[in-house]
């Protein structure tokens, strides 16, 4: 199949690498998938996924929503709900967000009590339609939840339980979630811990060379665009006409080592995990800047890789976090 013919059918700027609209597996996401599958299969009422910002938690959840139904071989309704900070009309806004998160078409209509009832009825319907007695909520930015909002979530859990439906609520957010659990334990709020915080998982970035290899090999062999073209993301940008047999994974060790050298040079903690966001931005820079739409290189030097890392925003972000500490 001719790469150039395929490229003509793709509007400028619409490749997934250019739009950022793609999901890619990593070692950490595979580990997380195993843990979350166990939580759901063992009917955990709730658990925490936590980690510092920019590690890729939200993208990981999007990936899980895609693969978990097949992994579990069950038609369980999964919903991804994003938290906000509420300043007024909290109950009304909270249940409106839950309705939006589950995809209800009438999320904004009615009083809080009506929204509660609408949510309950919708979830019961989804459970019956799926022929499962399970519902799974992924609540993103869950560190924003206040005590009252946990009480409202508990009401939802209890109402579904009355209909023999198990709600598993997975809280996704920053390390603050663990501090909240400690606070609830100190206050003897064991019902909240039992319902929503019965287990936890520390989500990590890229820690070692193997993590980088797994991520980069996905670009070489685990991705495809356009659909059914058998052209990976790497092959799309590094065409055979100027870069025969180019494989980005051949540079995985160089990319990993350059990240470590940058950490040392900039006074960052050595051996610190690399947030997924900046590893992905580095790879995207290489594909776009040095591939057929850019400089059309047939190989990468360490200087090219260094430029890609610096352009990702990694250094600025890490230095800010150090200042906040």
3D structure, described in words:
Residues 48-177 form the ORC1/DEAH AAA+ ATPase domain. With 325 residues, the chain is an alpha/beta fold. It has two domains: 3-11 and 206-324, no CATH class; 27-202, P-loop containing nucleotide triphosphate hydrolases (Rossmann fold), CATH 3.40.50.300. Helices cover 54% and strands 9% of the residues. The radius of gyration is 22 Å and the shape is globular.
Main beta sheet = 5 strands, parallel
Structural class: alpha/beta
- The overall pLDDT, averaged over residues, is 91
By CATH, the superfamily of the largest domain comes out as P-loop containing nucleotide triphosphate hydrolases
* Low confidence ranges: none
**Helix proportion:** 40-55%
CATH class of the largest domain: Alpha Beta
**End-to-end distance:** 53 Å
> Helical region count?
15
Radius of gyration: 22 Å
Strand order of the largest sheet: 2-3-4-1-5
CATH architecture of the largest domain: 3-Layer(aba) Sandwich
* CATH-assigned fold name of the largest domain: Rossmann fold
Number of strands: 5
Shape by Cα distribution: globular
The tally of structural domains comes to 2
What pattern of helices and strands is seen along the backbone? Answer: HHHEHEHHEHEHHEHHHHHH
Percent range for β-strand residues: 5-15%
